[in-house]
Structure formats: structure tokens, C-alpha cells
Amino acid sequence: MNSRPVALITGASRRVGIGAAIALRLARDGWDVATTFWRPYDDSMPWGSDPHDVTWLGEQLVACGATTKAIEADLSRVETPARVFDIAEEAIGPVTALVLSHCHSTDSHILDTTVESFDMHFAVNARASWLLVREFGRRFRGPSGRGRILALTSDHVVGNLPYGASKGALDRIVLAAAHEFRDLGITANVISPGPTDTGWMTVQQIDEFTRQTPGGRPGLPDDCAKLVRFLCSEEGGWINGQLLHSNGGFA
After folding, report:
1. pLDDT digit string (tens) for 20-48?
2. Is 163 an annotated catalytic residue?
3. pLDDT in tens, 226-239
4. What pLDDT is attached to residue 2?
5. pTM passes above 0.85
6. Using alpha carbons only, how large is the chain's radius of gyration in Å?
7. How many CA atoms lie within 13 A of 228 on its CB side?
């Protein structure tokens, strides 16, 4: 019988991403880790996708002592969340913490956003998140007070309408779980990490974010990972139903 708690982390497809940083932090803390990835999305973005990143992350997690499973998952499909849980449970065991770090993001404004783009953002960022949260609530059998749901959000919406709107929906879904899952012993919180350098920032953007942040730099993936690590610990169990800004004071 596996004695380590199991974390399911979505959107861990790039070694420089927040999802990978969270997975490594939890593995070092004694968690086993299932991750999801969807390289076609990264392939469509300016930063691209390195096919070796998923393998690299798996090797790093094993080196930390974790049992791990990487699951290719198109979260725009309704059936995917249940399948992800099935695979994670079969490969590792029942999930104790669900960390939603996946997203779909394509810049567009109110006037030029297409219906197709709007629907895709909500399918991945909101609907899939709801279905993953629902699946977790249905299956959770861990010790009362030890279940965790964490989701990464953003308040960026101007010029990025469908992304920001769908992230707003994500916030409400996760915060509702803090109340609806109380009797299951699950806490649920949302983290807004602010501008985080995961390889997409230009030199000009780094300079601008540095000027706007009292911390004197943009966020790094490990900044968010450290907060997730704490919230997933027993010590973090009294924080519940919160939208936390972990952004160095970025205005």
C-alpha cells in the first residue's frame, strides 16, 4: 500500500512552467505526483514545446523519490477529467491534492474575440476545472482535513478577454468547493501569481514588470510552487476559501 499522498497537477508540460515547479516541490516534500500535459497547445504558442520536457520532469520526480505518471490530456474534451483520474489512481493511488495549473490563453479583445475562441477558453479553463473538481470531490477518501484543491488564476482580461473571463469563472468554481466540500475535509484556494517568467517574457516586459513590482523582479515559477507546497501541508490547512495574491506586490 502506498503511504505517500498523491498530488494531481494539471498543465505540467514545460520544465520552465509553474506546473513543473509545483510538481518538484511536492515530490521533495514526500508526495507522489501525477501530471497532465498537452503538447499541441504549447506547439501552437510562441514559446513552442520541447518533446523532452515531460520525460525530464518524470526523471526529476523519480530522483526525488516520487512515484509519478504523466498523462496526455486534451482538457477541452468532456470525458478527459474522469479519464485522468482513472489513470492516476490506477498508476499511483487515490488523489489527495488537486492542483489546477493548466490554461488556454490566446490574446483577443471584446470586438475581435471569436465564438470558437471564447468557447475553447471556457472549455479548458472553466469547464474542465469544474469537472476535475467534481471528480475529486466524488472520489476523495483521504483523512478529513487533508484534501486540497489549489487553482492558479489571473486578473488579466483587457486585451485578453476570453482568458480573463474564463479564469474569473474558475475562481468562483474553486471557491464554491471550499464550502460545498467542507464535510469531505477538503480545503480549496485560488492563487494569483501575477506576471511569472516562464519563458514568454521579452526583455522589455521583464524591465516593465520589474519597475511595477516592489519585490524588484518578475515572479518565478518556484515562487508560486513554494506557496502551493505550504497550502498542501498540514500547516496550511486553516487557509480555506481564499483568493491569494502571491506576486511580490505587483500592482
Report:
1. 999 999 999 999 999 999 988 888 877 77
2. yes
3. 999 999 999 999 99
4. 58
5. yes
6. 17
7. 34
Which residue is associated with the grid cell 483520474? 85
- Answer yes or no: is 250 within a domain: no
What domain count does the chain have? 1
88 found inside a domain: yes
Of the candidates 24, 42, 1, 80, which has an alpha carbon nearest to the alpha carbon of residue 226?
A: 24
Q: How far apart are CA 163 and CA 126, in angstroms?
A: 10
Any domain includes 251? no
The answer to whether the beta carbons of residues 149 and 139 sit under 8 Å apart is no
Alpha carbon dihedral 227, 236, 58, 99, in 10-degree steps, equals -80
Q: Which domain holds residue 18?
A: 6-245
Report the pLDDT value the prediction gives residue 26, as an integer from 0 to 100: 98
Cβ atoms of residues 203 and 194 within 8 Å: no
How far is 25 from 6, CA to CA, in rounded Å? 13
pLDDT for the residue 251: 76
Which of these is catalytic: 31, 163, 181, 209?
163
CATH number of the domain enclosing 147: 3.40.50.720
What pLDDT, on a 0 to 100 scale, did the predictor assign at position 230?
98
Closest-CA residue to 118 (of 151, 155, 161, 74):
161
Is 38 a domain residue?
yes
* pLDDT value at 215 more than 70: yes
Other CB atoms within 10 Å distance of the CB of residue 7:
29
At residue 51's C-alpha, the angle toward residues 62 and 17, to 5°, is 65
